[in-house]
């Protein structure tokens, strides 16, 4: 039977990591490898407690400014015995949740439907703030059920992460693994649709915009990249793992805060997640360390809201209650104009 390994890199995600791990272990990952750096919210201590479970490995590392955090984590992960021995690996973030469509309940049910696959692309589904301002510690998938429409004309909303066979590739990657020289592995979308060879061969092709079958059931990665306004404020302070120099601001919020449709389909996975979360929560020190992380995030938010600029930021986020999905013609014009500008500027 195939083994499935989930790999992530995080910093200061204490209130979320317990539920995230529970969700993906319940969804069929056999083991989760969590790399952390510079945590000061209690995340590292919580993960050490969680690593008492044989399915969780916590690997702290020291970040240097030479490369992005995620690429440093990938270079560490690629030589780890768990990665080397796994049949399938996925590198993804703590705000991305696998959402399997019916009738599948675990990865071992879905993957065999693509028996010759060496890589499977799981497209994002962007979830917005649902108009929520306050931080909360209930599961993210229960708090936020407003999303972008499935067929949104927006390349960013069609990015993906990849479940792949590491032996078929040269290197791990943030969105997709790197191909071996002169080799094009067999790629599929998580719906079972084969990925065109031109996309499979291009390591830089990280969006499925215009490629997805309009009607096929798809296993998405629900992407909760903004959460509530207060949580977004904390995220802005923390920065992005793969783009430490990129601001998390109103532009970032506008590009991701889609609340156009209701989608609670992931709730069918909630019972299995709850059982797994209870098992993890019972491990020694996990409950206390989780509570400490929640309290620390609440404390940090309270401190941030003593600052006038942050008060104004929360207000502005509330005014931007939801982004409007663009019509096809406008999206295509936007893409064409960008291509022309890049060609003009060399």
UniProtKB/TrEMBL annotation:
CC terms in the record's Gene Ontology section: cytoplasm; membrane
Keywords of the record: Membrane, Transmembrane, Transmembrane helix
Membrane topology note: Single-pass membrane protein
Pfam families: Glyco_tranf_2_4
SUPFAM superfamilies per the UniProt record, alphabetical: Nucleotide-diphospho-sugar transferases (SSF53448)
Chief place where the protein resides: membrane
Subcellular location(s) of the protein: Membrane
Domain of life: Bacteria
InterPro entries cross-referenced by the UniProt entry: Nucleotide-diphossugar_trans
GO molecular function, one term: glycosyltransferase activity
PANTHER family: GLYCOSYLTRANSFERASE FAMILY 92 PROTEIN
Official protein name in the record: Glycosyltransferase family 2 protein
Species this chain originates from: Neptunicoccus cionae
Upper classification of the organism: Bacteria, Pseudomonadati, Pseudomonadota, Alphaproteobacteria, Rhodobacterales
């Amino acid at each position: 039977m195939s083994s499935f390994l989930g790999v992530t890199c995080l910093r200061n995600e204490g209130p979320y990591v317990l539920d995230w791990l529970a969700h993906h272990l319940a969804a069929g990952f056999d083991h989760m490898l969590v790399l952390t750096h510079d945590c000061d919210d209690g995340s590292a201590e919580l993960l050490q407690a969680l690593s008492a479970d044989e399915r969780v490995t916590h690997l702290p590392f020291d970040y240097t400014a030479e490369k992005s955090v995620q690429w440093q984590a990938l270079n560490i992960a690629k030589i780890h015995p768990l990665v080397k021995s796994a049949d399938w690996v996925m590198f993804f973030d703590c705000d991305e949740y696998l959402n399997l469509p019916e009738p599948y309940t675990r990865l071992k049910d879905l993957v065999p439907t693509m028996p010759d696959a060496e890589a499977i692309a799981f497209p994002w589904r962007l979830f917005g703030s649902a108009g929520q301002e306050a931080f909360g510690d209930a599961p993210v998938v229960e708090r936020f059920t407003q999303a972008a429409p499935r067929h949104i004309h927006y390349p960013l909303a069609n990015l993906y992460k990849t479940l792949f066979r590491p032996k078929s590739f040269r290197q791990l990657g943030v969105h997709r693994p790197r191909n071996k020289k002169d080799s094009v592995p067999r790629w599929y979308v998580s719906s079972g649709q084969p990925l065109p060879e031109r996309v499979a061969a291009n390591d830089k092709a990280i969006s499925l915009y215009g490629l997805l079958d309009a009607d096929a059931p798809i296993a998405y990665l629900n992407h909760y990249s903004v959460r509530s306004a207060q949580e977004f404020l904390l995220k802005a302070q923390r920065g992005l793992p793969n783009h430490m120099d990129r601001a998390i601001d109103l532009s970032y919020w506008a590009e991701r805060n889609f609340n156009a449709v209701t989608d609670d389909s992931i709730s069918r996975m909630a019972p299995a997640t709850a059982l797994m979360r209870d098992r993890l929560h019972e491990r020694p020190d996990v409950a206390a360390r989780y509570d400490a992380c929640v309290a620390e995030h609440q404390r940090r938010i309270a401190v941030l809201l003593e600052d006038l600029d942050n008060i104004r930021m929360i207000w502005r986020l509330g005014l931007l209650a939801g982004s409007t999905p663009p019509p096809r013609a406008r999206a295509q014009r936007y893409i064409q104009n960008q291509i022309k500008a890049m060609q003009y500027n060399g």
